[in-house]
Design a protein that fits this description.
Elements lengths: L2 H7 L2 H13 L13 E4 L11 H4 L5 E4 L1 H9 L9 E3 L5 E3 L3
Antiparallel strand pairs: 1-2, 3-4
Keywords: Endonuclease, Hydrolase, Nuclease
GO molecular function, one term: endonuclease activity
InterPro entries: HNH, HNH_nuc
Length: about 100
């Protein structure tokens, strides 16, 4: 996590927003229908918008993703592993979909 975002992601406001959005979406990945793991910002957070609640806390900018879809979103342009492998939430290399 980037240093500028640490305070935001530890805030009560973010945790309340994240948890309520996750429950509203029933914890289901909005891309593949698997069990969700992460509430993702569609428009990425950066130093220029980290203090804008219309970006950071707006449900229209959020989506629930499973770890695999989140990895694909952030790392698809890189070839970190061979096909069929991914990293889980703990950072361990595992077979995709497991």
């Amino acid at each position: 996590m980037k240093d500028y975002a640490k305070k935001f992601y530890k805030s009560k406001e973010w945790k309340k927003c994240r948890d309520s959005y996750f429950k509203y979406k029933l914890g289901i990945c909005e891309r593949c229908g698997a069990n969700g793991d992460i509430v993702h910002h569609k428009n990425y957070i950066h130093p220029g918008n980290i203090n804008d609640p219309e970006v950071t806390l707006n449900w229209a900018n959020l989506e629930v993703l499973c770890q695999e879809c989140h990895n694909r979103e952030h790392f698809e342009k890189y070839s970190w592993t061979r096909e069929g492998l991914t990293f889980n939430a703990a950072g361990d290399l595992v077979e995709s979909g497991k």
